[in-house]
Amino acid sequence: MTTTAHLGADGAKPAAGDGRGTRASGRSGPLGGIGWLVWRQHRLFFAALWAAVVVGAVWCAVLRGRAAGFIAAHHIDGCSLISLVPRCDGTQEAVTAFRGTYGFALQLAEMGLLLLPVLIGLFLGAPLIARELEAGTHKLVLTQSVSPLRWLAAKTALPALIVLLTTTALSAVFAWLWQAVGDEVSGSYWYSTLDFAALGPVPVAYSLLALAVGVLAGLLLRGTVLTMGVTLGAMVLIEVVLKQIRPYLMPIATTEFGAEQSPQLPDNAWLVGQGYHTRAGTHLPENICDSVAGMEPCLRAKGVAGQYMDHHPVSHHWPLAWIESGIVLALTAVLTVFAFRVMRRRHG
Fold first, then answer.
1. Are the beta carbons of 143 and 27 closer than 8 angstroms?
2. Confidence check: pLDDT of 308 > 70
3. Within 10 Å of residue 260's Cβ, how many Cβ atoms?
4. At 314, is the secondary structure helix, strand, or coil?
5. How do beta strands 304-312 and 283-285 pair?
6. Considering Cα of 31, then 35, then 40, then 43, what sign does the dihedral take?
7. Could you give the residue ranges of the DSSP H alpha helices within 82-223?
8. 3-state SS class at 82
9. Best CA proximity match to 208, nearest among 99, 110, 334
10. For helices 202-221 and 224-245, angle between their N-to-C axes, nearest 10 degrees
């Protein structure tokens, strides 16, 4: 019985140590090996992210051009529905028309960036490792020359890079739009849930966190559907908790008003709390006097000298955004380190 060696493209047998025979079905280059497999497995979601960048850029560019043109034509830049700015007198109808025309489109863009981290956690982070463990396909890779930690690093590095690039691009494009139409005229203030989550480093940090949560949950639970549910619950919980502590991430500014003054903050200031202040400088809650009929005697009896308002001015926006993003990224790093420790403990 005879055997026939497969000939190369030039008709010659592969030389010993040539490697062409063993690498014929592999991939070379920067996406070789595990990286190429990750790309192949999740290419549809990666393509969707890049498509979102393109569509989002076009959407924001068109919306910005039209909305900025409306603002300039009606001279309503910096004007809200109820404003104390003298130049905004008589612009209430134009501001209402602007919000009716462009408000929904702006909210749609904000909602997309708010939901983006959750979608990344559900459809990229959760199945990234859980699907491999559930199907047992990781065993084949780990029996080769690839170490468990290198396998996990390769599985997460490319998705993390793509998430970083795409979310940064989307956040930058939205910030460019919001710079022209945000705050007073649109009613989409920087401190609102939608806008804060869509601006600057915040959506980028939360997206990376969602990826880390999905990977760690997949390692621990080893089931795709269960991991997706846990990832969703964890992200919602984290966002709710950080929203509650957000006003206290940096010192709050306080403005006091005299008894004859009308308490009024700038339209773009974030009101956190308010009440009364006494002549001695003590702050009393807003409901210190419950009876409307006896309000004035009650206030005089307590020595009230005026009202106060705790708030964050618009200058606090970016410091608050970077502080919260730093907390989120620190949590991401902790979860990532924990994921590698779990991998080392379970698979050596």
1. no
2. yes
3. 6
4. helix
5. unpaired
6. negative
7. 92-120, 126-135, 138-142, 148-181, 193-198, 202-221
8. coil
9. 334
10. 140
Report pTM.
Answer: 0.86
Instruction: Give phi and psi for 74, each to the nearest 5.
Output: -105, 0
| Distance of alpha carbon 212 from alpha carbon 220, whole angstroms | 12
Query: In the predicted model, is pLDDT for residue 113 greater than 90?
Result: yes
The ranges assigned to domains in the chain are 34-250+317-347, 253-315
Question: What is the pLDDT confidence band of residue 20, given thresholds at 50, 70 and 90?
Answer: very low
The residue written with tokens 């009876």 in the block is 291
DSSP code string of 252-284: PEEEEEETTSPP---TT-EEEEEEEEETTS-EE
Cβ 187 vs Cβ 81: under 8 Å: yes
pLDDT tens-place string over residues 202-226: 999 999 999 999 999 999 998 999 9
Residue 264 Ramachandran class (φ > 0 left, ψ -120 to 50 alpha, else beta): beta
Place of tokens 């966190």: 209
Q: What is the pLDDT of residues 266-301, one digit of tens each?
A: 888 999 999 999 988 899 998 888 766 678 888 888
The residue among 247, 242, 245 whose CA lies nearest residue 311 is 247
Could you tell me where the DSSP H helices lie in 34-91? 34-74
Name the most confidently modeled range: 4-8, 299-303, 333-337.
Answer: 333-337
Two tokens at 110? 């904000």
State the Cα angle at 84 between 83 and 86, rounded to 5°: 105
